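Here comes my example:
=====
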Amino acid sequence: MKSRKSTVNRPVTSPPGPSLKSPVQDPRKMRFLYKLTLVISGGMFIDGFILGGIGLVMPALTADLELSLAWQGLIGASALIGIFFGGPIGGYLADKIGRKPMFVVDLAIFLVGSAAQFFVAEAWQLFAIRLVMGMAIGADYAIGWPLLAEFSPARLRGKLLAAQEVAWYIGYLLAYALGYYMSSAIEADWRIILGMSTIPSLIVFLLRLGTPESPRWLISKGRVEEGMAVANEYMEEAEIRDMASEKREATSFRKLFSPEYRKATIFMCMFWFCNVTPYFAIATFAPIVLESLGVEDGLSGALLLNGVVVAGCVTAMLLIERVGRRMLAIPPMWISAVALVAVGLLAQVSPLVILVCFITFSFANALSTALTGVYPGEIFPTEVRGAGVGFATAFSRIGAAAGTFILPMSVEGLGVGATMLIAAGICVVGAVISQYLAPETKGLSLNEASAPLGKAVAK
């Protein structure tokens, strides 16, 4: 099997002139990199904020709009449905027409959709608005992560990509806490609570204006001189040398399922699915589950668990360039499984024991889930990086939806204990898949990391 480096069509070299400076010598490049990380993190914060607020306002909007059970389900699922379609579409467009235009259009959709929620009068309007916003969320994953990966140096790439998951969870947690306060303490209208995402959307939209196009994408489209100009302006010398391996190639979803990249696609889809399915199930219904297990203040317990998740993501961000990807992918998934098995078998023992088990699960799950913001941007090549991220995003939403909608029925029909054992089994599947397929991309250049899966797998 040939590697990507053996099929280069046109070598890319740095233009003659003085040698490029390192980030220590040129802090301007580092300022750009951190600003880019910030504006992409801003999109992730908004993603989490939008998804985190709907559950708390559902009772109020159900009464106000006189929703049937069908409409409750549709509105609750609207953003997840949108993500399912928006990820692949946004990723394909980012690969086809460029990261830069989609980077701004995506936030414009966030902004318009957020503001439109202030004026909702009927159920179908809210469903349509949140469906479109969900498509923007899915697209944001498939646009922002490739863009950041393509600008980042190998020594920082994992940390900066992991920071995106931190931002997502902070947005989710803040929406959860703020929504609870506004609905209970000041009895704010649900439209105001949902529409609050307008504020961060406007700020991030303005910050994204003027972001340059990815030099790797430009070179992959044959625009070599333009790409090298951007690279010399914003990137380190080592990354510019790595771009010599870029080649001009058409965007095609078929490449994700080619013999070279089929394993990478399977790994990313299953790894993401097995991480988010138990998380969404437990996070969405944490108050109900905790109260059914004897924890009296279920809401406070749920907020605690979400806070632990943020701490877990921050820990992963700080450790990823030290311990590597596989160490954060495999052991935490086994720990998550053990914690959920303990909940399933000890459900009637003690509320304190159950809370400790849920805290353990939340922290361990956050460690591995942080990699869902890292691996997708690394293991797919430039010409299908957006499409690869988008497809894996869509597949993961199947798990998120399953965890959200099947859990209540499972708890009612099988009981909490059996339901937690099923969730533990999903974690075991993720751990086994990670053991065999998770690549170690620590310290690799982006072209090395995105070589056909197998080259970077630790033996």
